[in-house]
């Protein structure tokens, strides 16, 4: 009775309508899901191919032999189902190698092999064969040498002794190549006008006695190089040479003197080597009586950068000239010996001249 009432009620028809709606939805989407699944399966089963660059590995007794002539990488083309090709391309869990385990020193042609590729994949290695040279292995230690352009150091600066960390490296290779090594060089490129210590990591090269780069493995391949650069400036004490300049009174005699007998010059060592005295010019224009002047000292244009002290006091002693002509003289304790030497030389020259004149006169009388 109650069931009959439920069938006649609106709720019953609503439930029936909902059930039919669900069944209709399920039926419609079953076709779509089946179509999508078939499409996915078809895509995954489709064939594809890709080409990869793969590092070439060598199977050899590396403690005994050294191998040269082989390429670092080879090309591998794989073909098969798209899923498998995509997987192998992403993971690259396979290797290409050359089996040299049963070969002796010499040059050999070897067929490349693979390991790790799925048997369902087709592959092609390019090149298929390579030529390699197997040599007896040798390792030797060498100190690091340096090569750089000293002309790139700034003027008035000098480079000290370069250092490397580490300063001794090892070279490994075919015994014939290692035996040719003349030195291991760190070629350092320093900037122009370098004025301060220069540091850089530098790649090493092994060269023979003609400078040719050799095919060996250097360990470590790079070293930290340090080239100290310092100012070449030094100091030197030289005697003061007082010299009058200008025109004084024609009837006066001028004598110069100073308590400062030497000055200290700063400059490059090479330029200071050629300087034996420092000339101080003292103007006497308008000076008619004894006076003292402060003379500023300037750096001469010959590599001298600093003069100490910066000024000197010079006494200008003025006296009457007995000859009626202007006499300009200078005094300095360090130049007295040079004046004496010059006077002596002048006397000797005069004596030699007189001797030659007498000889010529005697010869003329005899004629």
From TrEMBL:
Residues 318-367 are annotated as: Disordered. Residues 321-346, 354-367 have a biased composition (Low complexity). The keyword Membrane applies. It holds the Pfam family YbbR. Signal peptide: none annotated. It comes from the Bacteria. The chain crosses the membrane at residues 12-28. Keywords: Membrane, Transmembrane, Transmembrane helix. This is YbbR family protein.
């Amino acid at each position: 009775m109650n069931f009959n009432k439920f069938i006649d009620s609106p709720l019953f028809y609503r439930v029936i309508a909902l059930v039919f709606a669900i069944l209709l939805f399920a039926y419609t989407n079953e076709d779509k899901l089946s179509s999508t699944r078939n499409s996915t399966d078809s895509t995954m089963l489709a064939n594809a191919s890709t080409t990869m660059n793969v590092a070439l590995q060598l199977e050899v007794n590396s403690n005994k032999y050294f191998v040269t002539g082989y390429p670092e990488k080879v090309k591998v083309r794989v073909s098969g189902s798209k899923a498998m090709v995509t997987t192998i391309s992403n993971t690259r869990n396979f290797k290409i190698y050359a089996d040299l385990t049963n070969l002796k020193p010499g040059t050999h042609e070897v067929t490349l092999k693979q390991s790790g590729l799925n048997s369902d994949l087709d592959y092609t290695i390019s090149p298929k064969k390579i030529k390699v040279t197997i040599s007896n292995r040798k390792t030797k230690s060498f100190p690091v040498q340096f090569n750089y352009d000293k002309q790139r150091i700034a003027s008035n600066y000098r480079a000290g002794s370069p250092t490397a960390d580490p300063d001794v490296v090892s070279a490994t290779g075919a015994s014939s190549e290692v035996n040719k090594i003349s030195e291991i060089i760190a070629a350092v490129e320093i900037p122009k006008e370098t004025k301060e210590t220069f540091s850089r990591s530098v790649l090493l090269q092994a060269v023979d006695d003609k400078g040719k780069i050799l095919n060996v493995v250097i360990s470590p391949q790079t070293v930290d190089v340090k080239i100290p650069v310092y100012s070449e400036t030094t100091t030197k004490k030289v005697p003061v040479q007082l010299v009058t300049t200008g025109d004084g009174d024609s009837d006066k005699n001028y004598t110069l003197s100073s308590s400062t007998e030497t000055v200290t010059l700063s400059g490059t060592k090479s330029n200071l080597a050629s300087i034996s005295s420092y000339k101080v010019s003292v103007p006497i224009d308008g000076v008619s009586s004894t006076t003292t002047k402060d003379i500023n000292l300037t750096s001469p244009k010959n590599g001298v950068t600093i003069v100490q002290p910066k000024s000197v006091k010079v006494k200008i002693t003025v006296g009457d000239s007995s000859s009626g002509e202007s006499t300009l003289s200078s005094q300095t304790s360090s130049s007295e010996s040079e004046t004496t030497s010059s006077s002596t030389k002048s006397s000797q020259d005069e004596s030699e001249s007189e001797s030659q004149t007498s000889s010529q006169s005697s010869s003329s009388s005899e004629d």
